[in-house]
Amino acid sequence: MNPSLIFKIANGITLLAWLVLILSPNQLKVIRNLRVFVSGLVLGGVYVFAIIVGNGQAEGNFSSLESVRSLFANDYFLLAGWIHYLAFDLFLGTWEVEDGIKEGINRWILVPVLALTFYFGPAGWLLYLILRYVTKTIDKKVQTI
C-alpha cells in the first residue's frame, strides 16, 4: 500500500478520534476505545506495518541526527515516525482528559490544551501540567477561605 495514502487515512482517523474525544458528552466512555483501539491497535498496527515494510530498504539509524535524517529518507520509516507521533499524542490526550476529569478541570478549559497536544504533543503536555498545578493551587486557596 502507498505510504502517502496510509498517511492520509491515519491522519483522518486520528482527527476524527480527537474530535470524538473533545466533543463527546461522556468523555469517560470514549477514552478507553480511543486509547486501546485507535491509539493502540489501529495506529500501533500501522506503525508496526510501516517498520516491517520499510525494514531493509532504509539506510541510517538513531546514532546521530544525520543518521536519523538518512533513516527518514525512506517513506515507510518517515510514515512510522509520523504514526508514532499520532499514536502517542492521542494516548496523551486521552490521559489529559481522564486526569482532568479526576481533578475537576472544566472540560472546555481543556480544549486549547488538547489542541496544543494534538499539534505539538510535548507543548500541550507542558501546558496541561501547568494548568493542573494552577487549578490545584487555586482550589487549595479557595478551600482555606
TrEMBL record:
<dbReference type="Pfam" id="PF14108">
    <property type="entry name" value="ABA4-like"/>
</dbReference>
<feature type="transmembrane region" description="Helical">
    <location>
        <begin position="76"/>
        <end position="97"/>
    </location>
</feature>
<keyword id="KW-1133">Transmembrane helix</keyword>
<keyword id="KW-0812">Transmembrane</keyword>
<protein>
    <submittedName>
        <fullName>DUF4281 domain-containing protein</fullName>
    </submittedName>
</protein>
<feature type="transmembrane region" description="Helical">
    <location>
        <begin position="36"/>
        <end position="56"/>
    </location>
</feature>
<feature type="transmembrane region" description="Helical">
    <location>
        <begin position="109"/>
        <end position="131"/>
    </location>
</feature>
<dbReference type="InterPro" id="IPR025461">
    <property type="entry name" value="ABA4-like"/>
</dbReference>
<feature type="transmembrane region" description="Helical">
    <location>
        <begin position="6"/>
        <end position="24"/>
    </location>
</feature>
<keyword id="KW-0472">Membrane</keyword>
